[in-house]
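re: the backbone from monday

yeah here it is again, tokenized this time
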């Protein structure tokens, strides 16, 4: 750079989303350490299980309705895990 030009006061940095970019909902996160001491953050969402099959039947009035199944279980669906290496000093 020639001496007559003043130093730049700002530098543009362009950001671009990857083709795999997505926004995900997370109800919480779980963390763990691997043997390299990397911190792993795993994000999850909680939901009721999606039934494999849904049954419909006639109610007392003769209308087709979904037959309710009682479920007490919940699923933590793991969405993404991100390893973070420790900061080097």
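seq for it, each position gets an aa:
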């Amino acid at each position: 750079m020639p001496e007559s030009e003043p130093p730049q006061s700002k530098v543009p940095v362009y950001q671009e989303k990857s083709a795999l970019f997505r926004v995900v909902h997370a109800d919480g996160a779980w963390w763990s350490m691997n043997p390299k001491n990397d911190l792993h953050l795993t994000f999850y969402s909680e939901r009721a299980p999606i039934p494999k099959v849904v049954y419909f039947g006639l109610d007392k009035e003769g209308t087709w309705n979904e037959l309710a199944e009682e479920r007490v279980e919940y699923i933590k669906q793991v969405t993404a895990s991100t390893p973070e290496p420790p900061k080097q000093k």
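The chain is about 0% helix and 35% strand. Residues 28-84 form one domain.
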